[in-house]
Amino acid sequence: MYCYKTGIAQIDDVSGGFEAGTNILILAPPMSYADQLAYALTKPLDGEYAIVLSTNERAAEVVDAFKLAGADKRFTGVIDAITKSSTTGIADTQRLMFVSSPTDLTGIGIKFSNMVETIFEGNFAEGETGLFPPPIRFCVNSISTLLMYRRLEVLYQFLHVLTAKLKKIEGVGIYLLNSESFDEKTLSLIKQLMNCVIEVKIEQNMSYMRIQGIRGVPGEWLKFAVVKGKVTILP
Amino acid sequence: MISTGVSGLDEMLGSGIPRGSRVLYSLEPGVDGQLFMLSSLSCALAKGLSCLVILPHTTVDAFRNDATKMYGAQLDLVSGPVVFMDAIDRERIQKTSRSEEGREREWQARIRKICRNHSVDVIFAYFDLLYEDFGPEKAIRLLESAREDAKTTLVLEHLNLGGTALLERFIGEFSFDLIVAVRASFRPIPHFNYFTMVHTSWSPAAPRSIPFIIREGRIIPFIPRIVVTGPAHAGKSTFVAQASDDGQSVDRRSPEGEPTTVAMDFGWLHWKDFDITLYGTPGHTRFDSLLPPYLRHAIGVVLIVDATKPDTFPRAKYLIDMAVKRRIPYVIAANKNDLPQLIKPGEIRAALGIGDDIPVFPISATRRSDVHFVLESMVDSITQFSY
């Protein structure tokens, strides 16, 4: 089974990376640069694809962030739930798709399916390697925003379908959730859909993460930094 | 009657939706089914009916743009007799009324006013956020109480995250007249889309499912094709004949005196809500050029092998590879299990080089029950995806 390298030795050395079908929740407080961590884990390596559902940043900003992180933008797709509210006439392309707002779960589901289908059919980008099923990293930035627009029960059902589909296509899912804005019930319900949780905290201006749910990876706090799309574990 | 805009569906309904009906288009997550609502809206407008479109999830401008891109310029949402309530209205209602009751009253008052002032014939409502704001009972009551004229038709589109249980509620509890579920077969990506006419109050017709494609902004239903193939004399024609309610065999006597298929066998049957066409291919290699066009639009392949003739397995393997290359789901029917010198399924599996995920059914194609068992497995494997 395909393994998605993370660039984090503590994970890659033990398990070879994230196993295909893994759904990972990044639980982080605001202003902890967790989106950089999420993008670093979503960045497509050779032969891989990335799809980002962005409810916080415009597609152009996401593409720029991936470019800065050294990703090949030909293999990166964005479902943008922001831009259309101000630029109503904006048209979809193969790699950039737009939904009217983060409330539009119907649209989000359809665009996700369309993008995955295009990747599976080999029509997403030139220079494809032909790996089958094509390895896809999918990032939701963020569940917090979706929760502001839709009720927890509805979003849970929607994410249940999405995480199941991701397992089926042997992709990997990375979901960001603000750890400080929601109650315990919300966090625990969302955690139920995941195989792995990465908690992030900030102490004395340093970022720490704790990985739970990957066999062999110790659940201790690790000091880390993200530089140009690469996660470095600091001593 | 109001046309749905989907020709196959209109015919199933007896030329469309009766005025005053309550209609639900239920969309499975990820399925491109938004054209159903737009097609019905376009037909209502083309007929000169006055329409109210309720879109709490988006703005009128964004909706107009999307609808025109999806359906084309014929959908006149500017000069046609159409009024909108959109996300801005919802926001205003939420700001002005603090309690849920207050918001419910405000929605009702606004919808009623529009219906009265514009003599609205059809209300098209994107239901998700109303459902979420008020729950299904209240949201439906809200829309119901606003339509003062019993002739006003109500059409909802809803992202169904509640599965068949929710559809049952729409039928039993909310007394909807027409429920169309728009679904997809995922293997693991959408393999094909289909709609199921789950319920009609005015027709006793059993639920039916019809696959569709979207071409130039139109929903085109099609009859799925299952290809029955295999080496020569494996029993394909017998299989097709036993499976079919109706059909046509093209067997001719070979120089050796045995019947042999010289073109395609055709069979038709209604099975599990689908109208299925079976195409039985000839098994001889000289007909191989016929196979690619038939496989191109196939949704499944039944490969028949003669379980008493291992020397034909390499030929079967070649045919399997043609299906695999096109990512078409397939099952193996190991025929002639009523004869001696039978090869066991495990050995057939090994000889064909297939994994445990591909079913191998020992059958006798002369038994209708065996043949239907294979088809049931085939249809299940291409239509079912459990979350």
Features:
heterodimer; A: about 240 residues; alpha/beta; 10-stranded mixed sheet; two-stranded antiparallel ribbon; globular; B: about 375 residues; Rossmann fold; 7-stranded mixed sheet
Task: Please explain how this structure is put together.
The complex is a heterodimer of chains A (235) and B (387). Chain A has helices spanning 9-15, 34-42, 59-68, 105-120, 143-149, 152-168, 184-191, and strands at 3-4, 18-19, 23-28, 49-54, 76-80, 96-98, 136-141, 172-178, 196-203, 206-212, 222-227, 230-233. Chain A has 235 residues and is of the alpha/beta class. In chain A, strand 4, helix 3 and strand 5 form a beta-alpha-beta unit. The longest helix of chain A has 17 residues, at 152-168. The two termini of chain A are 32 Å apart. Chain B has 387 residues and is of the alpha/beta class. Chain B has 2 domains: 9-216, 3-Layer(aba) Sandwich (Rossmann fold), CATH 3.40.50; 223-383, P-loop containing nucleotide triphosphate hydrolases (Rossmann fold), CATH 3.40.50. Chain B is built from 12 helices and 18 strands. Chain B has helices at residues 7-13, 34-46, 60-71, 87-96, 100-118, 128-146, 163-172, 236-243, 291-296, 313-325, 345-352, 368-383, and strands at residues 22-27, 51-55, 82-86, 122-126, 153-159, 178-186, 190-200, 208-215, 218-221, 225-229, 246-248, 251-253, 259-261, 265-271, 274-280, 298-306, 330-335, 360-362. In chain B, the strands form 3 sheets. Chain B has a 9-stranded mixed β-sheet, sandwiched between helices. Chain B has a 7-stranded mixed β-sheet with strand order 11-14-15-10-16-17-18, sandwiched between helices. Chain B is elongated. Classes of the chains: A alpha/beta (235), B alpha/beta (387). The interface between A and B is medium-sized, with 33 and 32 residues.
